[in-house]
């Protein structure tokens, strides 16, 4: 009888041990899954920031094939395509994201951005028009300003640029865009002021320095502005100033500035030399 009692007890004990091991395995598996999700999130972030755009596209293409319903991976693919300047594919990818469950207003703004990069301003405007006015973000207003610019709706553009500048801690690029908008309208003094502000916001923004020279030259002011610049930048800005002077009809001043640009550049400044030769031969 003892043996008959002992066997069920051993079986029960074995079952209990088995269940215990099974629960431990499940706990370990869940923990590993959590770690994998954290690791994957880190890889996704790296791919979207410092990774090569085309490598990121390949990474997210593989990931979306494995998990096509995960909107975060579809967003990653769309962002990577835009970063890689594959704009037509980027439009398709963001269109897919916008149609997925869990899509939000920010996704629609990204789709509008992709449309603009692809040169489809009308669809960009239509997309932004569908975004509720309560969605007030820097990117939304920056795009609104660009679209208003393209439509030559200057008051709307100024309003949107002003709002966008107030919604970011790094306004230099959008301030530069606003200045360029003023430049294209022929409002050179206002453009000059905005370019100066952009440079104060980011001393390394060469496009703003170049645009500042254009705005000054358009007003007949051919002296370089007092802004931070290295020797190469100084030579390039002198070249821009020279071409502006020539365009204004001041050929003599243009030649002088071209010679200054050639002398200033620490290396062979082929572009300026070619401009000077072409001008002298003419």
Automatic annotation (TrEMBL):
<protein>
    <submittedName>
        <fullName>Tetratricopeptide repeat protein</fullName>
    </submittedName>
</protein>
<dbReference type="Pfam" id="PF13432">
    <property type="entry name" value="TPR_16"/>
</dbReference>
<dbReference type="InterPro" id="IPR011990">
    <property type="entry name" value="TPR-like_helical_dom_sf"/>
</dbReference>
């Amino acid at each position: 009888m003892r043996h008959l009692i002992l066997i069920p007890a051993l079986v029960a004990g074995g079952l209990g041990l088995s269940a215990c091991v099974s629960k431990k395995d499940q706990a370990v598996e869940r923990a590993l899954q959590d770690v994998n999700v954290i690791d994957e999130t880190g890889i996704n972030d790296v791919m979207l920031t410092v990774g090569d755009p085309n490598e990121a596209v390949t990474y997210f293409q593989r990931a979306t094939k494995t998990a096509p319903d995960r909107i975060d991976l579809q967003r990653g693919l769309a962002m990577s395509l835009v970063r890689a300047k594959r704009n037509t594919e980027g439009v398709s990818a963001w269109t897919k994201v916008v149609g997925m469950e869990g899509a939000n207003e920010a996704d629609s703004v990204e789709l509008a951005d992709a449309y603009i990069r692809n040169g489809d301003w009308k669809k960009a405007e239509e997309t932004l028009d569908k975004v509720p006015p309560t969605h007030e973000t820097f990117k939304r207003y920056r795009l609104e300003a660009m679209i208003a610019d393209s439509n030559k709706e200057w008051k709307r553009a100024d309003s949107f640029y002003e709002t966008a500048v107030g919604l970011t801690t790094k306004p230099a690029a959008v301030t530069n865009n606003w200045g360029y908008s003023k430049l294209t309208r022929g409002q050179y003094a206002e453009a000059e002021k905005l370019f100066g502000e952009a440079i104060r916001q980011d001393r390394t923004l060469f496009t703003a320095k170049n645009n500042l020279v254009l705005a000054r030259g358009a007003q007949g002011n051919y002296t370089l502005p007092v802004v931070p610049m290295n020797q190469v930048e100084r030579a390039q800005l002198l070249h821009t100033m020279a071409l502006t002077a020539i365009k204004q009809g001041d050929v003599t001043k243009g030649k002088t500035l071209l010679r200054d640009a050639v002398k200033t550049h620490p290396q062979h400044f082929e572009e300026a030399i070619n401009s000077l030769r072409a001008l002298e031969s003419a």
